Structure formats: C-alpha cells, structure tokens
Amino acid sequence: MIFILLILSVIAGVFLGKFFGKKEQFAKNLLILSAGFLITICLNEVFPQVYASEVSGNLGIFVIGGVLLQMILEALTKGFEHGHFHHHNESSNILPVALMVGLFIHAFIEGIPLANETNPLSPYLLGILFHNLPISFILGAFLFNRSGSKASYPSLLIVALFALASPMGMLLGNYFNPDLQPYFLAIVGGIFLHISSVIIFESNKNHNINWSKIGLVILGVSLALLMHLFHSHDHGHHH
Q: Which residue windows are transmembrane per the record (predicted)?
C-alpha cells in the first residue's frame, strides 16, 4: 500500500506538471504549502522521534549532516527541489544525469526510515507524499512541457527512477539494523528542514510582506497539525 502511494504521488505530480506546467504560480503555491507541512512534520514528528530514541547522543550531528547533504545534492539538482528551474535559459544547464542522481539520492534516503511503516496515514509518510507532489510537478513540467520535448525514453526513465527511489530506500531499510533508524531519520530531518526553510524564508522582492505566502505556510502547518492530532491518538507510544 505504501509503495503504491509513494509511486502514485510522483505520477500524479508529473501529470499535473505536464498539463499545468505553464502555471508557475500554481507550482510555487504548491511548494510553499508543502514547505509549511514539511517543517511542521519535521518539528512535531521527526525530531521528537529522533531524540526520544534510545540511541546515545550525537544525533544532532546527523541532522546537520542531512542539511549539508541536501546542500551538496542541490549542487547536482540546482535547487530543483524548491522550484529553481523556471529561468528557462538555465534549465538547459541542468544535466539530466546530475538531476537524476541528485533527485534519486534525495528520494532514496527519504524512503529508508519508512522500512517498518505500515500505517498509510503516518505523518512522516504524508510529509514525503506531500513533498513529492510539487517536485514531481516541476519535473513533469520540465521534462514534458518544454518546446519540442516529447515523452521520450530518457524522460520516462527519469520519472520511473524518481518514482521508485523512495520505495527502493524503504526496501533496503528493512535490511538495516533497526538501531540505525534514528540516524537515518535524523538525516532526513535535516534534509526536510533545509528544503522547507529555504522555500519559506526565501526573501521576496523588496522584502515586502507576502500575505498569500504567509497564508499558504499557515495552511500547510495547520494541515500537518491536524494530521499530528489524529496520529498521536492512534499511536500514543511514539511520543
């Protein structure tokens, strides 16, 4: 079930990107909404789970490691994860291979902490699904919406690889020692923190207050808090 949800979230995003890819504002709004959701999941679910684990200290270093890893991955993806491809002259600079590698590693690592997850409504899983949508939207727009771009094999391969990356991470996670789980969760927490904070704190032109952005962030936060409420009733033992 979780496998299917992970793959569907990517396919849905790519389809949206293919058909609505010209609507940049839609993609931006989706990103901001997902960033609000993601940072809340991070602070309410991921970090408490990391720090409540029985593992001895040093987990903070892995969170920082996740932040640094995401910074390195963005050298490959050129900030694709936060919608930085709309400058069309730049989109040709993103080597599909580098983009593929960056996105694959990113999604693969996010899948590892899902190893023993059975609840399709787990906030962490929903965080990933929510976060997959805008990235896949941008991916779909990038691959299938450029002038002269066809649904070629390389494009379909990139989509397939990205869709399968998290499920593959999840599969591999089953073979790891469960004691390593908090470390992977800490790394992903760092990745989530970096991506969501870059999207949320990216300055607006002239630093004016952007009410629609604030509204979208609050909406994303509220959605995540709702999920948190429902989830903590089901799984009190997490906290």
A: 55-73, 94-115, 121-144, 156-176, 182-201, 213-231
CA distance 128 to 170: 12
- HSE, CB side, 13 Å, CA atoms: give it for residue 181: 19
Q: Pick the residue with more confidence: 192 or 156?
A: 192
Question: Cβ neighbours of residue 75 under 8 Å, at least 6 residues apart?
Answer: 102
Residue 50 tokens read as: 């990391």
Q: Answer whether residue 233 shows pLDDT above 60.
A: no
CA distance linking residue 237 with residue 239, whole number of Å: 5
Q: What is the pTM of this model?
A: 0.86
Length of the chain: 239
pLDDT at 88: 47
Q: How far is CA 213 from CA 35, 169, 217, 231, in A?
A: 11, 33, 6, 27
The CA distance from 222 to 110, in Å, is 23
Residue 80, φ and ψ in degrees, nearest 5: -55, -35
> Per residue, what are the HEC states of the chain?
CHHHHHHHHHHHHHHHHHHHCCCHHHHHHHHHHHHHHHHHHHHHHHHHHHHHCCCCCCHHHHHHHHHHHHHHHHHHHCCHHHCCCCCHHHHCCCCHHHHHHHHHHHHHHHHHHHCCCCCCCCHHHHHHHHHHHHHHHHHHHHHHCCCCCCCCHHHHHHHHHHHHHHHHHHHHHCCCCHHHHHHHHHHHHHHHHHHHHHHHHCCCHHHCCCHHHHHHHHHHHHHHHHHHHHHHHHCHHHC
